[in-house]
Design a protein that fits this description.
The protein has three helices and five strands. By secondary structure, it is of the alpha+beta class. The protein has one domain: Hypothetical Cytosolic Protein, Chain: A (2-Layer Sandwich), CATH 3.30.1230. The longest helix has 16 residues. The chain is globular.
Protein backbone atom coordinates (compact mmCIF):
# COMPACT_ATOMS: atom_id res chain seq x y z
CA UNK A 1 0.00 0.00 0.00
CA UNK A 2 1.39 3.38 -1.00
CA UNK A 3 1.77 6.13 1.55
CA UNK A 4 0.54 9.53 0.50
CA UNK A 5 3.28 12.08 -0.02
CA UNK A 6 2.91 15.13 2.23
CA UNK A 7 3.82 18.38 0.45
CA UNK A 8 6.51 20.38 2.22
CA UNK A 9 7.27 24.09 1.95
CA UNK A 10 10.03 26.27 3.33
CA UNK A 11 9.47 29.19 5.71
CA UNK A 12 10.82 32.40 4.18
CA UNK A 13 12.13 33.60 7.55
CA UNK A 14 13.79 30.64 9.28
CA UNK A 15 14.28 28.56 6.09
CA UNK A 16 13.03 25.34 7.69
CA UNK A 17 10.91 22.90 5.71
CA UNK A 18 7.59 21.87 7.20
CA UNK A 19 4.38 20.27 5.98
CA UNK A 20 2.37 22.73 3.90
CA UNK A 21 -0.72 22.56 6.15
CA UNK A 22 1.26 23.73 9.20
CA UNK A 23 2.50 26.94 7.56
CA UNK A 24 0.71 30.23 6.91
CA UNK A 25 0.48 31.18 3.22
CA UNK A 26 0.84 34.87 2.40
CA UNK A 27 -0.27 36.11 -1.02
CA UNK A 28 0.54 39.36 -2.80
CA UNK A 29 -2.73 40.72 -4.19
CA UNK A 30 -3.01 44.23 -5.65
CA UNK A 31 0.30 45.28 -4.03
CA UNK A 32 -0.98 44.23 -0.60
CA UNK A 33 0.02 41.19 1.45
CA UNK A 34 -2.87 38.98 2.54
CA UNK A 35 -2.81 35.92 4.79
CA UNK A 36 -4.43 33.13 2.79
CA UNK A 37 -6.13 30.87 5.33
CA UNK A 38 -7.79 28.67 2.71
CA UNK A 39 -4.56 28.07 0.79
CA UNK A 40 -6.35 28.57 -2.52
CA UNK A 41 -6.15 32.30 -3.19
CA UNK A 42 -4.89 33.34 -6.59
CA UNK A 43 -1.42 34.74 -6.94
CA UNK A 44 2.09 33.97 -5.93
CA UNK A 45 2.40 32.87 -2.34
CA UNK A 46 5.09 32.61 0.27
CA UNK A 47 4.99 30.43 3.37
CA UNK A 48 5.70 31.42 6.94
CA UNK A 49 5.89 29.47 10.21
CA UNK A 50 2.89 30.21 12.43
CA UNK A 51 5.00 32.06 15.01
CA UNK A 52 5.29 35.76 15.70
CA UNK A 53 9.08 35.36 15.85
CA UNK A 54 9.22 34.23 12.20
CA UNK A 55 6.88 37.04 11.17
CA UNK A 56 9.11 39.60 12.91
CA UNK A 57 12.21 38.11 11.30
CA UNK A 58 10.57 38.13 7.85
CA UNK A 59 9.73 41.81 8.32
CA UNK A 60 13.24 42.63 9.56
CA UNK A 61 15.06 40.91 6.69
CA UNK A 62 12.46 42.12 4.15
CA UNK A 63 11.74 38.57 3.01
CA UNK A 64 8.37 39.50 1.50
CA UNK A 65 10.00 42.25 -0.57
CA UNK A 66 12.35 39.67 -2.08
CA UNK A 67 9.91 36.79 -2.49
CA UNK A 68 6.78 38.59 -3.62
CA UNK A 69 8.12 41.99 -4.73
CA UNK A 70 5.67 43.61 -2.33
CA UNK A 71 6.70 45.58 0.77
CA UNK A 72 5.01 44.76 4.06
CA UNK A 73 2.79 47.54 5.37
CA UNK A 74 1.87 47.91 9.02
CA UNK A 75 -1.74 46.90 8.33
CA UNK A 76 -0.60 43.73 6.52
CA UNK A 77 1.75 42.92 9.41
CA UNK A 78 -1.09 43.26 11.91
CA UNK A 79 -3.48 41.17 9.79
CA UNK A 80 -0.96 38.33 9.39
CA UNK A 81 -0.14 38.51 13.10
CA UNK A 82 -3.87 38.15 13.96
CA UNK A 83 -4.09 35.03 11.78
CA UNK A 84 -1.03 33.53 13.49
CA UNK A 85 -2.36 34.28 16.97
CA UNK A 86 -5.80 32.91 16.07
CA UNK A 87 -4.16 29.69 14.84
CA UNK A 88 -2.20 29.45 18.10
CA UNK A 89 -5.41 29.56 20.15
CA UNK A 90 -7.09 26.67 18.29
Amino acid sequence: MKTKKIPRRMCIACRQGQPKKELVRVVASDNELIADESGKAQGRGAYLCPTVECLDKAKKIKAFDRQLSTPMSESAYNAIKRVILRRDIK
